[in-house]
UniProtKB/TrEMBL annotation:
Pfam families: SASP (PF00269)
InterPro entries: SASP_alpha/beta-type (IPR001448), SASP_sf_alpha/beta (IPR038300)
UniProt-recorded name of the protein: Small, acid-soluble spore protein, alpha/beta type
Spans through the membrane: none
GO molecular function, one term: double-stranded DNA binding
Any GO BP annotation: DNA topological change
Function per UniProt: SASP are bound to spore DNA. They are double-stranded DNA-binding proteins that cause DNA to change to an a-like conformation. They protect the DNA backbone from chemical and enzymatic cleavage and are thus involved in dormant spore's high resistance to UV light.
Amino acid sequence: MDRAARARDELKWETARELGLDDDLSNPGDQLTVREAGKIGGNMVRKLVKAGEEALAEEGNLAAETKGPVQE
């Protein structure tokens, strides 16, 4: 499993724990309902979007700091 796949798997388990659905994931014989899978997936997307927005904001802050004051 590559690094990105491990990170997605960790995010899935973290999100399932937060929603109280990790017990459903831990039993291979049990199946998630479509609703449960949607809750996990939807919350994963929210977290990824938030992380992306934070990274872009940080990138913008760094770029503004390195440019310095505008000279006329």
